[in-house]
């Protein structure tokens, strides 16, 4: 069963314009967003294969994704365009 991706635009639809502007204006934001999407893809692959939820590597990846998501959210929320 395919697990849907968690794009920033679908997670935060009210910030979609800010996210698009930041992708164009900030190399750091774009790189962090790309890393977020890479982590999400890896995590979804592990979930689809039924990895144990107590797996340390799996949990570390989820923690990294959550941390990046929080950082990206804060930047998008405070972005003025």
Automatic annotation (TrEMBL):
Domain of life: Bacteria
UniProt-listed Pfam families: DUF465
InterPro entries in UniProt: DUF465, DUF465_sf
Protein name as it appears in the record: YdcH family protein
